Structure prediction request, 76 residues.
Amino acid sequence: GCILDGKLYPFGEIARTDNCFRCSCSREAMRCCSLFHTPTGYDKENCKVIFNKKSCDYDVVQKSDPSKECIVYSRV
Prediction:
């Protein structure tokens, strides 16, 4: 198997790791891609980015009221 962040994963495809990556584990290597997209276009003055481990994505919320979401214009 392969070890990522101290956890052993079996050979083959891993749909989702604990840290929100999709990986492929072989005897030669472990290759991973993130399941999330980082917000880049939003109101940085009034909003902040919080990682949501449940949805494996970033939430962009108002600094003054984190229960309210902000509009995100672009992600990478």
